[in-house]
Amino acid sequence: MRTDFETLRELISGFSAGTDTRPAEPTSDGLAARRPRPPLDCRLPDALVPGPQDPYPHSLHETFERRSSSTTYGTEPLEAEALLGMVRDALVDDARTWGTEAAACPLEPFVLLLRPGGTEPGIYRVRLDGVDLVRPLPPAEEIEGMAVQKEFARAGAIVSVAANLDEADAWGGAAGYRFTMSRSAALIYSLHLRAAARGLVGTVFAGFATSAVRHLLDSDGVSRHQMFAVTIASPQTEPPGQAAG
């Protein structure tokens, strides 16, 4: 077994503000532009352009009151354009909030549409100006193995947001990672609340296992790393024998 204290010191230095006698050194090398990420090979680019969203049936106050984490899902299909539109709007909010800083470290949402209405099941990537069909869904057992809980695969959709950690590090060192992680979490929680405001259910979780999506989502853990995720589904309806009345 090998103990490498120098690596640990470098990590601590990157997260530290330093001292008067030992200023912190950024971990950034500024060279991400020389290591461009290969373009994602999509089965059908611009497969869909979501239109404007209908008004949310629940206010923000009502949404906070009714929001909860759920891994129990109904079987009704999700309207694909509405769901992808919510993801697009959350991404637009991120870009609007952070401006040039968001452009320096862009986020990349992926949507596994498991039970969609209005389009075919598959893996989609959402951009600010459109949606790409990346590839068909893998077998169900492979989806179950992508996260720590198998029941996530029973949702109507799973949304995962990815980021280029090489770009984030080149932009701001350790602060670049923290900045990108915070924005990823904010986008996913924004989407979770948007779904709840439309009467849908789901739960936020820490994201996919890198080894499970290395080829499926072209994620090497550096130039594209899946940061945070959320399940979305229709609520489970009560069995007829348990219905009120």
Describe what you observe in this structure:
The chain has helices at 5-15, 60-66, 80-98, 100-104, 140-144, 165-197, 210-213; strands at residues 44-48, 78-79, 107-113, 116-117, 122-127, 130-135, 157-163, 204-205, 225-232. It has 245 residues and is of the alpha+beta class. It has a domain at 69-236: NADH Oxidase, CATH 3.40.109. The longest helix is centred in the last third of the chain and has 33 residues, at 165-197. The mean pLDDT is 86.
Helix and strand arrangement:
Elements: H1 5-15, E1 44-48, H2 60-66, E2 78-79, H3 80-98, H4 100-104, E3 107-113, E4 116-117, E5 122-127, E6 130-135, H5 140-144, E7 157-163, H6 165-197, E8 204-205, H7 210-213, E9 225-232
Parallel strand pairs: 2-4
Antiparallel strand pairs: 1-6, 3-5, 3-7, 5-6, 7-9, 8-9
Helix pairs in contact: 2-6, 3-6
Region (Disordered): 13-38
GO molecular function, one term: oxidoreductase activity
Protein name: Nitroreductase domain-containing protein
Percent helix among the residues?
A: 25-40%
Give me the secondary-structure category.
Answer: alpha+beta
CATH topology (level 3) name of the domain at 69-236: NADH Oxidase
Mean pLDDT: 86
Q: What characteristic shape results from the CA principal axes?
A: globular
How many distinct beta strands? 9
Global Rg = 20 Å
CATH architecture of the domain at 69-236: 3-Layer(aba) Sandwich
Q: Give the N-to-C terminal Cα separation.
A: 65 Å
Secondary-structure element order, as H and E? HEHEHHEEEEHEHEHE
What's the arrangement of strands in the largest beta sheet? 1-6-5-3-7-9-8
Number of helices: 7
Which CATH top level class of the domain at 69-236 fits?
Alpha Beta
Largest sheet: 7 strands, antiparallel
Low-confidence stretches: none
Determine the strand fraction and express it as a percent band. 15-25%
The CATH superfamily of the domain at 69-236 is known as: NADH Oxidase
